[in-house]
Amino acid sequence: MHKRYGERTIYDGLDFQVRRRERWCVMGINGAGKSTLLKLIAGASEPDSGTVTRGPSVKMGYFAQHAMELLEAERTVLQSLEDSFPQAGQAALRALAGCFGFSGDEIEKKCRVLSGGEKARLVMAKMLFDPPNFLVLDEPTNHLDIATKQMLVEALSRFEGAMLFVSHDRHFLAALSNRVLELTPEGPHLYGGGYTEYVERTGQEAPGLRT
Ligand SMILES: Nc1ncnc2c1ncn2[C@@H]1O[C@H](COP(=O)(O)OP(=O)(O)OP(=O)(O)O)[C@@H](O)[C@H]1O
């Protein structure tokens, strides 16, 4: 596919495939087009030419920072889950909230008072309730505290579907990736091993690593 913003070419004939059980981390400097790729794959943006094709049984879950801004301010955590899953029983939704760290009265908190980490947890609870088999995650650990991040890494390491993600967290990259897609000015570089092997082989860490 081809994608440009005004004069700026982001992809000039990118050809890339994610197969079952592959877990791709997408690396590149600021502005390399990481988030754009995830948006294109998730259908949140369209290529100028070329196509994005999803397998017939693919059920995608997409996490992006803007999803946190879309939570309705005056709805509580529980109401927000009920709005997303009107068919689900209260007990199931309370259990779901509990799994994502909302205990006791916390499910009565309105979305407008939630911290960044709490919003991220609520968005993830919604994304994972009806499990997808392909996760597209744009910096999912940005607002998470260490305990929640660890919980997410453990949960995702048991996830059997495919993944494509952008992260600046070394532990997240190392624990979860088995493929590396590097977006460079010369074009994409595909690497058939995970992040740890990539670092061992190239001697380079991901640009913009935070930990
Ligand atoms: N809607 C848009 N209109 C114009 N330019 C855009 C738009 N979205 C992204 N860009 C530009 O396209 C380039 C790629 O953006 P993208 O967000 O994909 O980069 P990224 O690799 O995810 O960067 P970062 O690491 O900073 O998050 C950037 O230069 C960005 O400013």
Automatic annotation (TrEMBL):
Any one GO MF annotation of this record: ATP binding
Keyword Magnesium part of the UniProt annotation: no
InterPro entries (UniProt xref): AAA+_ATPase (IPR003593), ABC_transporter-like_ATP-bd (IPR003439), ABC_transporter-like_CS (IPR017871), ABCF (IPR050611), P-loop_NTPase (IPR027417)
Lineage summary: Bacteria, Pseudomonadati, Pseudomonadota, Alphaproteobacteria, Hyphomicrobiales
Source organism superkingdom: Bacteria
Keyword Endoplasmic reticulum carried by entry: no
The protein, known as: ABC transporter domain-containing protein
Keyword set, alphabetical order: ATP-binding, Nucleotide-binding, Repeat
Pfam families: ABC_tran
Family affiliation: Belongs to the ABC transporter superfamily.
UniProt domain ABC transporter: residue ranges: 1-211
